[in-house]
Amino acid sequence: MGETRVDLLHLLEDLRDAYPGSLEETILTEIIANSLDSGANQILLQANPTEGRLTVIDNGSGMQRKDLARYHDIASSTKRRGQGIGFAGVGIKLGLLVCEEVLTETRRGHTYVSTTWHLSSRHRAPWKWVPPIGMVNQQGTAVRLTLHNVLSPLLDPGFLGAAVSRHFQPLLDPTFSTILNPHYPQGVAFKINGVELTPQRFEAPVIAPLEIRLLRKRKPSALGYLVRTEGPLPEDLQGLAISTYGKVIKSGWDWLGITPQSRERISGLIEVPGLAGSLTLNKGDFIRVGARGATYLAYRKAIQEAVQRQLSEWGVVDGPVEETPPRQMRPLERDLERVLEDLSDLFPLLGSLVEHRRGGQKRLPLGMPGPYQDMRAVMVPGEASQVQEVEEELVVQTRGNEPSGGETQREPREREDSASVVSDFLLPDRGSRRAPARFGLGIQLEDREDDQEIGRLVESTVWVNRAHPAYQRAVSTRSVGYHIALAVGLSLAPLAVEPAQEHAFLTAFLSCWGEASLPKQSKKRKR
Question: How many beta carbons lie within 10 A of that of residue 87, not counting itself?
Fold first, then answer.
């Protein structure tokens, strides 16, 4: 019997390339993420360039002996997605690429153990138990990296301070203490070579708070601010950054789909703890498919509404980042909007892509009583627990506009069966006199040669591959409308249902699209 072997060095190099930042920043943020997930409220970083060592010590819960043994396995973690930031079990292993030795010491209760670890060849990374050297006093975990290169940025205190401030800015900003208090009740303090990082509040002439609330809860589900300065900001500070559990995930304007005027003078940050379950493995983006993808898209739309409202008040709004679709595509977009409105009853995860138009709140039921509930269970198997995270009503409010008594106003509705009728996504009217920006599903054309996909979903826009042979055939046979509808259906299927149910979804999508284009039959009058 043979045995499967792994080219460990090649695997670690591929994992390194999957992370968006530099290798040194990735190693540092992964170690800190593990400390935060352990409940630490104090993280000490000690850089010793003379010995070429970086030591990170926390006062978290520590690990049991069996957990420390599993700690050396690739993609092994005791945490589940959504419980913390460092759930993948791969980031800390990247330290083997730059270290001669990784010494890990942990203490929890009566357990006080330590291991040493290194990469000895392309296929082997042996580790062994060693006596603790006393890096941890009462409880917690310490990781000591002995680096190959004594000139590594990880040995520079200035680099460490800048990286911590950039990647964990909400933990240093008192603005986010209220929303992060349930996860870090005692706060988090960072010390670098004995010097504590001071709280950092963004100072600007104009600061506008942002809040996104769940309809039935007084506490905000997302909290942040937008700032406007008199002069241009550094490029890394331009745009709105989004974080979860205190870890900044994305920044800029591209992910939000909005380009304001004077964009170089506007910055901001918003913390959304509810998006921790939608993180990708590299913690550099959010999942776009399934229930977790719908959660991200729903929050993104709510953030768009809040940011658009504030930019309108400042008079610097310029609308979403989209090219104007061809005139002949607008009727197709309207048809597809109606299709999504109809299908959102059976496939509730599509609700995040339906446009909420001006003139009132548009309600999309995310659960149906009676026989439709059984049909939904067939179409979306295994997602009942995941959809529960998405199926809560969202409204966008700016601070200071809450109704009296601390309650958020909501329109009354009948509940025939509270167990089967779940919540809806609610987004309010912006109330602006300008033409409303589109935050629903958009369709754009692009040229991607040598790509087998006829379309792809990016945020809330379906990009149809104009260079695909099937599109060119559709043009010659005058069936572009059907081709685009098929591309939209294929692009939305991974978001709406599990892979095994994509065929059923596509069949329902095309059927509904075909019915939307048929002329309505008028009823005969009686004399």
Answer: 22
C-alpha–C-alpha distance, residues 338 and 280, integer Å: 31
Judge contact between 283 and 244, C-beta under 8 A.
Answer: no
**The dihedral formed by the CA atoms of 230, 236, 237 and 241, expressed in degrees to the nearest 10:** 150
Q: What are the phi and psi torsion angles at 226 (to 5°)?
A: -115, 140
Please give the helix or strand (H or E) that residue 107 lies within, else none.
strand 99-108
Q: Taking the domains of the chain in order of start, what are their residue ranges?
A: 8-161, 198-314
SS3 content of the chain, % helix, strand, coil (to 5): 35, 20, 45
Of 222, 219, 33, 16, nearest in space to 143 by CA: 33
Is the backbone of residue 293 left (phi > 0), alpha (psi -120 to 50) or beta? alpha
Residue (of 401, 214, 444, 438) closest to 304 by Cα position: 438
Please tell me the distance from the alpha carbon of residue 505 to that of residue 368, in angstroms, as a whole number: 17
The single-letter DSSP state of residue 182 is: T
Please write the tens of the pLDDT for every residue from 142-152: 999 999 999 99
- Nearest Cα residue to 387 out of 401, 373, 405: 373
Q: Phi first, then psi: what are they for 147, rounded to 5°?
A: -85, 150
Instruction: Give Cα 119 to chain centroid, integer Å.
Output: 33
Average pLDDT score, the chain: 78
Identify the CATH class of 198-314: alpha beta
For residues 165 and 162, give the distance between their C-alpha atoms in angstroms, rounded to a whole number: 5
pLDDT of 433 reads: 44
Task: Kindly tell me the number of DSSP H helices and DSSP E strands found in the chain.
Answer: 13, 19
**Mind listing the pLDDT tens digit for each residue in 439-462?**
667 788 888 887 888 888 887 788
The C-alpha angle with vertex 216 and arms to 213 and 218, in degrees rounded to 5, equals 55
Identical fold between 8-161 and 198-314: no
- 2's tokens: 């043979």
Domain 8-161 class, CATH top level: alpha beta
20 φ, ψ to 5°?
Answer: -75, -30
pLDDT of residue 505: 86
Ranges of residues in the chain whose predicted pLDDT is under 70: 3, 75-83, 87-91, 215-216, 317-330, 352, 354-440, 517-527
The identity of residue 524, as a single letter, is K
Are the CB atoms for 352 and 301 separated by under 8 Å?
A: yes
